[in-house]
Amino acid sequence: MIIFVGPFAEQLDKSKVLTNKQTLVMDNDFIRGNNDLINDLIGNFPGAKVNIKTISKTMDVDKKVKTKTNFDYMPVKLPKATAGRPYVAYLGVNNLPSDPSVNKELERIGLHHYTDRNRIGGTPKEPGAYDFHFNYRKYNESGMEELSTQTLTLIVEKEYDIEVDHDPVHHKYWKESVDTRIVDVNQDDKKRLKKNMAAASRRGQQQITNVKIREDDFCIRYDEKTRWYALAVADGAGKSIYSCKGSQIASNSAVGRCLDRLSKQSGKLRKLTVRYTWRKSNHLLKEIMKMLHEIIASSVNDAYKDIEDEAYAQECLPEDYATTLLMCICKKFEFGWLIGTFGAGDGVICVYHKDNWYANLMGGNEPAAGKSFLTTPGIIQSSEMERRIRFTIVDDFSALFLMTNGVSDPKFECETQLHCFELWNKFWDDINAQVNLSGKINDVGEELLKWLDFWTPGKNDDRTIAMVF
């Protein structure tokens, strides 16, 4: 058996020059910087022998294999750092030599290049932009090793205390820098058979720096009569002058209008879902989606109209109130939980169940380049609404999350991570470490607000999360 290890494993495999049984194949570059990992690998195969092949020999065998260099693994721009805060960045190259001149530059600002794991670490002293010229080895088209230089840029930002009170109190639509709310659905149920709701929102350091009002907002409500949950989060567009009001109108209006419609149509929707549970036909599913479209889409449309009315009353344009909107309605029936969602913009909606290994993304997660807002032309058209409305029935869930990108971006750095169940487990454990979700519900709101104060370099946006748990 051949086991290929290292960044050039794919090329080694294609060359087919190594056929020894039980052989660990490693290229030289991988060996230089990963001694501990290699020892662990060898320990897993006690009968194996180590076969070390240089990449240049491999390239001679198969000229069709595209030559890769370590430049492919070298970041051009380092993650942002913050003065006075611990910092670490992994360079992604296994053979980066120690350079005295670079170390001198790094140590001048409080950092150091650790060659054992090829990382930069320390605590930056002063804000600014710094360039470092690193040497690294690569392979040319002939498969020969040569030395090259790469310039890396590090941005060190100024540290701001998120508790500093720089509120723009004279803003036309002033609101608190932080907000939190809990809904104790179980207050009259000692067995705690129902799920509770909580939400928290915190102004980001970016807004504090620019003396701007909190642009995020949320709304969570539970209708005791119909037993429907409704919740929404919204993130006002930074370039829109009154986006802070737009997010407030969007979240409150959409949730309120949804619950109003559900109180009138809940019975009919329940009958359809019960029939669908027992006989899953496309016809019944279309009927359910038609009902959901009427309830959710009409409510979202009303939210847009409310923004439009406010804008015209202030002699402004709706685009001046631009905001994202993530909304969800859910209710427990005999057959399970019926969940319907709408998403316009970034952030994430996720139905998560720890024990059942279940993390279903149900809205948001739009890339920054193609990010939509509620006021984006065409969003409230019927065909677009149908595409953005989603529906599911689940037996149960640990938590239903709605969060703006101020939370999702630092916790899930790319779309691939959003689809990783283990990272959702980590996210859930992270919350539970600081928020006692099984304790007194009255404490959850403030604990959730404190949890939102986590530190991530370069991630300074408003943070808002709403959840059913």
CATH superfamily of the largest domain: PPM-type phosphatase domain
Share of helical residues: 25-40%
Low-pLDDT runs = 1-33, 41-73, 161-166
Average pLDDT metric: 78
How many domain modules?
Answer: 3
Give the radius of gyration: 27 Å
Question: Biggest sheet, strands in spatial order?
Answer: 10-11-20-19-16-17
Distance between the termini: 48 Å
Largest sheet: 6 strands, antiparallel
Strand content: 25-35%
Structure write-up:
There is one protein chain. With 469 residues, the chain is α+β, with helices and mostly antiparallel strands. The protein has 3 domains: 2-61, no CATH class; 70-157, Immunoglobulins (Immunoglobulin-like); 178-468, Phosphatase 2c, domain 1. It is 33% helix and 27% strand. The protein contains 13 helices and 20 strands. A 6-stranded antiparallel beta sheet has the order 10-11-20-19-16-17. A 5-stranded antiparallel beta sheet has the order 12-13-14-15-18. Strand 1, helix 1 (9-15) and strand 2 (23-26) form a beta-alpha-beta unit. Helix 7 runs antiparallel to helix 8. The protein is globular and about 75 Å long.
